[in-house]
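A student in our group prepared the protein record below, which I am reviewing. Here is the record exactly as it was handed to me.
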Amino acid sequence: MIIDETFKAAVRKYPNKPVLIFLGEKYTYAHLDDVVEKLSRALHKHGVRPKDKAIIFLPHCPQWIVVWLALQRMGAVAVPVTHFYGPKDLQYIANDSGAETIFCMDTNFGYVSKVLAETSLKRVVVTSIADALPWWKKTVGKLYNRIPEGKFSLGENVYAFPSLLKESAPALPPVHAAPEDMAEMLYTGGTTGFPKGVPISSVLLLESVLEQRRSSSKLIPPGTDVVIQGAPLYHILGQAVGFGALFTGDTLILLPKMNLDAIFEHIQRYKAKSFFGTPTLYRMILEHDRLDQYNLRSLEYNFSGGDALPGEVANRWLKKFGKPISQGYGATETCGGVALTPPGEQSPEGTGGKILSIRRALLVDPDTLEPVAEGGSGELLVSSDHMVTAYWNKPEETARHFVDIDGQRWYRTGDIVRIDKEGWLYFMDRSVDIIKHKGYRVAASKIEAVLQEHPAVIAACAVGIADPAVGERIKAFVVLKEDVKGVTAYDLATWCRQRLASYEVPQYIEFRDMLPKSKVGKLLRRELRAEERRKFAPV
């Protein structure tokens, strides 16, 4: 099956059941399907065709889901990105993907307008938070200034989302979509400093999402779950939980912002049963001073991904709520889960889950690619029947991260793990090129490239410093040009804030006379990382 057929099957089975809850409003499966149909017809009328790419530059709101599903119905390709992107990142994604359509909020339309002339974008669809609300909530929200508003101008090829839904448009022509066709393209950090497009097919996404839902179905039968979206929908781990709800008759709660009190209130009010979050988010919940004012006992399935879950966080959660946190390990390139903790099964301490049956895992020496001895640790290689086999327009990155061994394609995770005889995966170390900060994968090379663009900087190196509160904090080591004086860490941090997403900006900047390099001139991040570890090692 393909994605649209899977969603339509859920609509037929659960037409009157709530599929989305947003700011107190409920949307049934039948209503959502009707809006998806209207939007897909209008988009086709205005020139969007199968295999065309469209950027989703939206925060969490019903429109996000409508747009994504409408693109699937048309056989087009969704390109979801964070709504925190600035013009530079947006321009890069548009040009790299070749997208011709972008969906944005009125509040970030200004960024879109700045890049239109420099990209292949032909049409812009603008929406607002208020578009998802009934008239009386819009009125109250605007009266009390609770609804953010941005200015935008309608014109040629700039459309208002509500207007498209009201247009009279003919039925879609037959869409000849195949399971192996690209359904979406997610962008992940690149070791060369630029994000890499990961093409994900319809069959791979469904396989991954439904496997995740099958895991939780041991606790919560399909069609009975209420899921609170605790991770971004532009991230594969957020999709693994959120899309699983859409395809199996569950109810998905969307929050426009990740505010802890709002999360607690929604769990309590709607008796949410499933929750996904990063280890950082779970820690923040446990340490929130108003936690005991809410009843979160309805939660049955608590899932953690995006980073290794500290044992003390897992133990505190279990003691507090009497329910364990199920862990998972995965990547964008593997379309989510490689390993999951089966609910109800006692997991060994320190594990990232058990290798899934839909994945194949191989541990190798990272230098020789020779298999390691049984019980030993090595770089994790992952393969599957419908796997991603290459990055979009990135042959050098593809050659670096995908290998063929004995006639089979494998993705090199760059992570050092150990797998025991029962299939439990234990995370040992990660690639030094990627920093895990607050659940985000941050490319060290991207930070370095931005720092080296500064006229006073001759060299830079970024590494992750372990911090139980956020996973890793970002520290940059900088070498200034000899004749430069008066440039401070504050100056460089300001430079970065103007060019990077907020979660990519270094928290620490240290000046050095030189940086460690190999004999061939390759930057040795691992030496700086090891140096930082020694500083905080117990005596």
